[in-house]
Amino acid sequence: MHIDQDVIDCIKNARRVCILTGAGVSAESGIATFRDAKEGKGLWSQYDPQQLASIDGFLKDPQTVWQWYQWRRDVNKDKEPNPAHLAIARWQKESHQNGKQVVSLITQNVDGLHQKAGSDPVTELHGNIWRNHCLQCGQIHQDSVEGIESVPQCLACGGQVRPSVVWFGEALPEQAWREAESAAYSCDLFLSVGTSSQVYPAAGLAALAKSQGATVIEINPEPTNSSVVDYQIAGKAGEVLSTLTF
Ligand SMILES: CC(C)NC(=O)[C@H](Cc1c[nH]c2ccccc12)NC(=O)[C@H](CCCC/N=C(/NCCC(=O)O)S[C@H]1O[C@H](COP(=O)(O)OP(=O)(O)OC[C@H]2O[C@@H](n3cnc4c(N)ncnc43)[C@H](O)[C@@H]2O)[C@@H](O)[C@H]1O)NC(=O)OCc1ccccc1
Ligand SMILES: [Zn+2]
């Protein structure tokens, strides 16, 4: 995998790095991307993810939405981090130790594979599929929901339990969004990895970084042709990030 020297220098000389990841970073772990689902690949392809991942979808048909998330949890449960997750975790750890760079990790993924790879901290913009809470009172649902086919009831108020992910039309967790905005605002290198940059407000972070003079690098086998990208590396995240030394 050839990577231009000026890209390598740009990564080496960066002081404050903001990494934004999307479903593409988990593709090499065997987890289908949203794009894959939309393009009719996979079991639930006859459903529109945006319909299933929405409060209207849940209110209209909670059973189907619950079963979609149970299916995704079932698919994800034995998936392991791939070289992309591991390279990012190593980069965070090493930069923390050598103090040469500050590396912030912002993810749109709900699969928890960054944490499994040892990344810490991880800013989860769209929640996490392994957590659940009550739609009515917000109480976190501690009990395991493994194998529970019907929508569980909240132990506090009897309300419907839902996955703790951000659905379309819902606001992002305030703390997470604040962390993402400040990381993008103050970085000198913004690295967009495995995202189609179509879902907002996450897709606006690269432009925010650019507006503050940061260099924007995209790692994606399919260029998104976003106008804010300075360097596009047309390769798979695992292959590209494992060849880069930080
Ligand atoms: C589709 C889009 C047009 N719609 C939106 O953006 C909407 C509406 C909207 C808001 N502002 C706008 C402005 C303009 C237009 C629309 C909007 N946004 C919202 O609804 C957001 C909420 C958005 C979050 C939705 N939840 C998700 N996930 C959790 C759930 C779940 O997972 O079930 S989004 C979900 O889809 C997105 C999928 O995108 P990607 O991750 O990029 O994945 P994708 O499959 O698209 O692409 C994969 C890429 O990887 C590449 N790839 C493949 N293999 C590899 C490989 N090996 N290596 C590297 N790359 C690879 C591929 O080439 C591809 O490019 C992710 O964000 C993911 O988290 N909320 C909100 O705005 O609330 C308002 C509000 C504000 C205040 C108060 C009240 C309300
Ligand atoms: Zn409740």
Automatic annotation (TrEMBL):
The keyword Lipid metabolism does not apply. Binds 1 zinc ion per subunit. GO terms for cellular component: cytoplasm. Zn(2+) binds at residues 134, 137, 154, 157. Its cofactor is Zn(2+). It is found in: Cytoplasm. The active site is at residue 126. This is NAD-dependent protein deacylase. It comes from Kangiella profundi. The lineage of its organism: Bacteria, Pseudomonadati, Pseudomonadota, Gammaproteobacteria, Kangiellales. The gene is cobB.
